[in-house]
Amino acid sequence: MSLVERLSGPPNCHLSEALLVQLTRCEVFKNACKNTPQQEASELRKELLRVSENFVLDSFMGFAPLLAQPRVIAAGALAIATRYIRREMAIPELCGLLNNADASLPAEKVRHVVDEILNVFRTKSLAGSATAAGGAAALAGAAGAARGLGAG
Asked: What is the per-residue burial (b if ≥16 Cβ within 10 Å, else e) of 26-47?
């Protein structure tokens, strides 16, 4: 059982499955499908759980666990993962689908958690690019120094 499934509630109440059912009813999803919506949703399941687990882990580096219940965090991670995998799906629409899947997940609370997780994701991305830029500058400086040593 994935981390998202564990956070989403008791057994027989899997949020990921409920979201996939809602996706098969969503016009945007259906219009983007090359196969039947049910077949595409089934193929999406494994990757959705893998990607959403990464976003759940990201949530623990921010404020989301302090602001929402674990089930709402799982819903937010599923929304982001679905958007990440299926670009045609918009976050507000996904928050609405999660609310349709489970009325205890108000779309505005899920959206707030999504924003918090994305803040962590953006911060990590900026830190990673700053580190990469610093490393590239250091390599360029070292290469320049090596050329200077060779010229003398």
From this structure: beebeeebeeebeebbeebeee
Around Cβ 10, how many Cβ atoms within 10 Å?
A: 6
Please say whether the beta carbons of 119 and 62 come within 8 A.
yes
Whole-prediction pTM: 0.78
d(CA 115, CA 34): 30
**Statement: residue 151 has pLDDT above 70:** no
Residue with the two structure tokens 């990921």: 16
